[in-house]
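pipeline/complex-builder :: batch 7 item 3
reading input block
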Amino acid sequence: MADFEETLYDAVAQKFRIDKLYFENKTDHQHLMIFHNAALGRVMTLDGIVQTTEADEFVYHEMMAHVPLVAHGAPQHVLIIGGGDGGMLREVAKHAVESITQVEIDAAVVEMAKTYLPNHSAGAYDDPRLQLVIDDGFAFVRDDTRHYDVIIVDSTDPIGPGEVLFSEDFYAHAKTRLAPGGVVVTQNGVPFFQPDEVTTTHRRLARHFADATFYCAPVPTYYGGFMTFGWATDATELRGLAPAIIRDRVERAELNTRYYNADMHGAAFALPQYVRAAMQGE
Amino acid sequence: MADFEETLYDAVAQKFRIDKLYFENKTDHQHLMIFHNAALGRVMTLDGIVQTTEADEFVYHEMMAHVPLVAHGAPQHVLIIGGGDGGMLREVAKHAVESITQVEIDAAVVEMAKTYLPNHSAGAYDDPRLQLVIDDGFAFVRDDTRHYDVIIVDSTDPIGPGEVLFSEDFYAHAKTRLAPGGVVVTQNGVPFFQPDEVTTTHRRLARHFADATFYCAPVPTYYGGFMTFGWATDATELRGLAPAIIRDRVERAELNTRYYNADMHGAAFALPQYVRAAMQGE
């Protein structure tokens, strides 16, 4: 059986044995592949880059959903940009929100994930609170008129279709879609190999939001140590909430997580020296 | 030019391009290789497993040295077990300690590292406070009569010569070598792929120390998200020192770090749900 070798970097790669190939196709937008690996469960790749695996997706989805939703405290309306595999939706749906709007550009990713990665959405695509929109995320935030308490930008890397979701125009549009007290979080790459994403995103977010920073989590198959999530809000008090408040909210929410907990919530905002330096463009 | 492919796991691997091979030899103890990679700088492998790279060694060495030394507050005598590449010694030597004893089993690792990884030790092998002992680490802690404020077990994985450094007998001997208020830290693998190491080590440490836990840091080329460091001490107050105390000590020590800072010190002790579960053997 063949191997999958990631093409993200030039001199280093991660390599997964393809124990069973479920699907391989060039969609209108991207080259999609889903296979089984003995160590990682089912793996989805787009254009040669690992998007998600059954074994470690919980780290990414839990940290990207629960940190902003718990920090907000009383989210009612949530917007997910991207996230076609359904894992983000599953975690958001654990919260007592009124509506979840998900905007995914590629209908094929949703369909393939429902078929081949059913544990990602775990039935959440049938949630009556969900409005699923197949559309360009950039156009959606530019043209939409509603407001959201939390916007989660669960994008690919800033290569190909995901690139506009890292643009300053996108962040400016997203800000206009936030309700008062709202927060935007974004997938922002692995700073060990992609420090420029930290520098660029921080500069762009800081022009539009009173509090623009990052928080971190190590997702094993996003190679290179931990990844950063962009954190942007005018509600400057949300980042530094007292641990006792976070603990109380986490207990009441009964989120049933494998990575996230109240300790990890606070700890994730601690930034290593080299990330602080990258934020300043050093 | 050939590639290096790590043999640690069966179904997943990391692969580095060998841009220049500096050294390859079977020593008395291990198969040692040192090469250059465009993304990682110089890389040292032992028996097919990545030991250290110039690009990311700072995460590992800073977190393993500064967390116990800063938490201790006034360390005078430090024992390093292993650490032949010299990176741990370099970080320990940044502190105003009286003596540093390093016990490395393999003289060839020290010599090769001095020649091919000079940035790791950065001259610290000439530090007049250092006593370098080429000996088996297990035998050393069993037979030694001195006491240390901090013991750093910078071992390989629990395969081959490093295995005894994960044994309960070793931990018991290490405890007898601690001065009052002392702390032992250990390299304890990547829990995403090696959760049994968390379960086993926690059980063994908890039998001998009043406080036995782990702290975490993601080292990019220790594949699989973050790694855990064992933390074992009878000085139960050391783990939860007030952030202001840590900040003050870190500022005064002027450690000039790229990863470690006062925020990362405290945050590293936050443990994800699945690590907590592994600690309980679940």
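note: The first strand of chain A starts at residue 3 and ends at 5.
queue -> next item
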